[in-house]
Design goal:
The chain is α+β, with helices and mostly antiparallel strands. It has 4 helices and 12 strands. The protein has a domain of 156 residues: Nucleoside Triphosphate Pyrophosphohydrolase (Alpha-Beta Complex). The longest helix is centred in the C-terminal third of the chain and has 15 residues.
Length: 224
């Protein structure tokens, strides 16, 4: 979920944890199995697709790269956006952004934005598929482009947009025992969203909102 003005997701109570759902089997979290799943996808439906809008501006097409790093324990590469940005400031996100007229397709947008934001060279990236478009409350129509990333990549973050780049284990994110549900009332409507907080070396990475929703859709795609 995109953030309305003056909204602090850390203060919204947890109303449930999805520990009753099965986690994705370890064999499905290996590079070859992931590529095969996208090459021959099973019938499935995304759990999250549209947030309640809080802006009247026309929809804007965008893409994010969902980078699955091929380590012994697969990880997801994420960024923390800088605080001064006008959109989604301070949030944990996938590298990505608005489509440019010159972009051939959503994949081109995702690869270009990942290179501009974190210096990820396309030669280290193997795109294996996409998830359904996710419509944010801030009127972005986001295509999540899923890719395997070879572990010899290097990072050169754009300091204006990116405060930090880090990795979270894929098996942690694909285990619903780590998926927390939140709800709150805003503008007369009840809004619900997920968080997947990950703590490492005393630092909490508060994965939530649109990023968590797209990860939950990846979970649904893999667990069917």
């Amino acid at each position: 979920m995109s953030r309305p003005p003056n909204f602090d997701p850390h203060r919204v109570p947890v109303i449930g944890v999805d520990a009753h759902l099965p986690k994705v089997a370890a064999d499905l979290l290996r590079p070859q199995a992931l590529a095969q799943r996208f090459a021959a996808p099973p019938p499935w439906s995304p759990e999250y697709s549209t947030e309640p809008k809080f802006t009247e501006r026309p929809p804007v097409h965008a893409s994010v790269l969902v980078p699955l790093v091929q380590r012994e324990r697969m990880t997801v590469l994420l960024t923390q956006r800088t605080q001064h940005l006008s959109s989604h400031s301070g949030q944990i996100a996938f590298p990505g952004g608005k489509a440019d007229p010159e972009d051939a397709d959503p994949v081109a947008t995702a690869l270009r934005e990942a290179h501009e934001e974190i210096g990820l060279d396309a030669r280290h990236v193997e795109v294996i598929g996409s998830l359904p478009i996710y419509a944010t409350g801030s009127a972005y129509l986001v295509t999540p482009v899923v890719a395997l990333v070879h572990q010899d990549f290097t990072i050169s973050a754009n300091d204006f947009e990116v405060a930090d780049v880090f990795e979270v284990p894929l098996d942690f994110l694909m285990d619903p025992a780590n998926h927390r549900r939140h709800a709150y009332e805003w503008q007369g409507a009840r809004r619900e969203w997920l968080s997947m907080p990950y703590r490492e070396q005393g630092v909490e990475r508060f994965v939530w909102g649109a990023t968590a929703a797209m990860l939950r859709n990846l979970y649904r795609f893999l667990v069917v």
